[in-house]
Write a structure and sequence with these properties.
Elements lengths: L7 H11 L4 E2 L2 H4 L16 E3 L4 H14 L3 E4 L18 E4 L6 E5 L4 E5 L4 H10 L2 E2 L12 H6 L7 H4 L2 H4 E7 L5 E3 L14 H4 L8 E8 L1 E2 L3 E9 L2 H14 L4 E8 L3 H7 L11 E9 L5 H14 L3 E6 L3 H20 L8 E2 L5 H15 L4 E6 L5 E7 L6 H21 L15 H6 L3 H14 L19
Helix pairs in contact: 1-3, 9-11, 10-12, 13-14
Bound molecules: flavin-adenine dinucleotide.
Length: 478
């Protein structure tokens, strides 16, 4: 990739592609596109281009391809691994999808929704609800992240155990390829066995194979009954045992099972001082059952919890008596994520192991931090029903950020090692981006690397799509 300066000729060509309102080149105008939600990552760009139509995305990609400019697709910029931020500032162009943001179609008869890639996830959920449907992808960033970003990062969230990840919820994609050609894979079909499932290549590709401009999504009937309970347990081991029982006892109506180590609760209070935990136990579980017909979920939950309390697995249980109380339970789970961010730099992971290995992962990780990094604070919580634990570690108060970051790199490597020895993954959700490229690549078998490189080079021979993200620059043509 050649690093360009923005000459008047290039600027004028860019304006020709997206119009004057679709381009930002001043530091002030570009700032919000060059730093991510966490505040941890900052980058540079030659320009930020904001196409407002699919044709404009094509024009931008063709122009960049002709000039040999790197392209960084950007959604809501809530990704936490610098996938949409050029931290090496190599003179690429950020292409923000924010102006391509319409819900194109809601077809409640076929349970299908089509939308532009820049549509914010919450807007998609609202449009689905207006048609008595549910789009079940649900995550803390849903008010800002875009459906194209969700597709590109194969987002998960709190309802994965019932409905799956973005990969399971996408029926079709529309993608502008690295040469500017448009591939449309919308068909509305639930079953289609004609050869390779091309959309799956782009889902989770983190902007390295093309720019997603449209998505076709699966909808589900909207739940009319929801029951939520906040539970106290003695250990992560007990919580996983409970999950197994709940899975069988809930008639497959469980939609969320979140585990929170009690050490995380203080952080939720940084966001709202009134947040109070309903239980006192070392481990908290937030469990939700939902149904799209008037099934007596309450009876199901009460019966199941009575047994779990009798056997001593659950030590405390509070059932939400209203929607407001359920919301207050969820505010604890959501608040702790934001609370951690408020503390500034910290080690942030999204590890995945087999569900039965969750207690061992947490145990080993906590021991590692206590023994090797005294003073650092372990925080364990996550979508435990999917074997996904966010094991985050906060630096001791007063430690200079520079030192904290250097030590944080060692801690992250240690946590990845622990997940690795359990046969786990260094990323259950957030992806590889630029911050994990080295660790990801080092852990791959040679055949796996060869396949990834072959796909990348076949689709993006110039290596212009999101250079430095997911694949090390040495493995691409740029
Ligand atoms: C508070 C909070 C909670 C979160 N909770 C979860 C969670 O529960 N589960 C989870 O999975 N993630 C979670 N995340 C991470 C993040 O929200 C998701 O990864 C989300 O899917 C990113 O979407 P985005 O639109 O912000 O993408 P961005 O951050 O803008 O981009 C992410 C990646 O996708 C690429 N990309 C973006 N748009 C496109 C496009 N149109 N075409 C091609 N490539 C594109 C970018 O180049 C980048 O590599 C959370 C983040 C925050 C801040």
């Amino acid at each position: 990739m050649t690093v360009h300066r923005l000459s008047p000729k290039i600027l004028s060509a860019m304006e020709g592609a997206v119009g004057q309102g679709g381009i930002a080149i001043d530091a002030g105008d570009m700032a919000k596109y060059l730093g991510d939600w966490s505040g941890d990552h900052h980058g540079g760009a030659l320009a930020v281009l904001k196409p407002a139509s699919v044709a404009e995305v094509q024009a931008v990609v063709r122009l960049c391809a002709a000039l040999g400019l790197g392209i960084i697709p950007q959604g809501g910029n809530t990704g936490l691994v610098a996938g949409a931020i050029d931290i090496e500032a190599r003179g690429a162009v950020v292409v923000s999808l924010e102006r391509l943001n319409a819900v194109r179609l809601v077809d409640a008869d076929n349970f299908v929704l089509q939308a532009d890639a820049g549509c914010v996830l919450q807007a998609i959920k609202n449009a689905s609800e207006a048609h008595d449907c549910l789009f079940p992808l649900a995550l803390g960033a849903q008010g800002s992240c875009q459906i194209g970003g969700n597709a590109a990062s194969n987002a998960g969230g709190i309802n994965v155990l019932r409905y799956g990840m973005a990969r399971d919820l996408i029926l079709g994609l529309e993608v502008v390829l690295p040469d500017g050609e448009l591939w449309s894979g919308f068909s509305g079909l639930r079953k289609d066995n004609r050869g390779y499932d091309l959309k799956q290549l782009f889902i989770g590709s983190e902007g390295t194979l093309g720019i997603i401009t449209g998505v076709e999504l699966k909808l589900f009937p909207k739940p009319v009954r929801v029951e939520t309970a906040y539970l106290g347990l003695a250990s992560f081991e007990a919580a996983i045992a409970l999950f197994r029982q709940a899975r069988r006892a809930s008639a497959d109506l469980m939609s969320a099972f979140e585990i929170i180590g009690s050490e995380c609760i203080e952080l939720a209070r940084l966001i709202d001082a009134d947040i109070a935990s309903p239980v006192e136990a070392p481990v908290h579980v937030l469990i939700e059952l939902s149904a799209s017909a008037p099934v007596d979920l309450r009876a199901l939950l009460v019966d199941f919890l009575a047994g779990a309390m009798e056997s001593g697995l659950v030590t405390e249980a509070v059932l939400a008596e209203s929607g407001a109380q359920a919301k207050a339970f969820w505010a604890i789970r959501e608040g702790l994520v934001e609370g951690q961010a408020k503390r500034g730099y910290h080690v942030r992971t999204d590890l995945a192991v087999r569900i039965s290995d969750v207690p061992t992962l947490v145990d080993q990780a906590r021991r590692f931090v206590t023994l090797d990094h005294p003073g650092w604070l372990s925080q364990a919580y996550g979508h435990a029903g999917d074997g996904n634990i966010h094991f985050n570690v906060l630096p001791p108060a007063g430690l200079a950020e520079r030192e904290a970051r250097a030590r944080g790199t060692d801690i992250t490597a240690g946590l990845y090692r622990i997940a690795g020895t359990l046969g786990g993954s260094i990323s259950a959700e957030h992806g590889i981006g630029r911050t994990r490229t080295r660790a990801f690549w080092a852990g791959l078998a040679p055949t796996h690397r060869r396949l990834i490189t072959a796909l990348k080079n076949a689709l993006d021979p110039q290596g212009l799509m999101n250079p430095g993200c997911l694949l090390p620059l040495t493995e691409t043509s740029s």
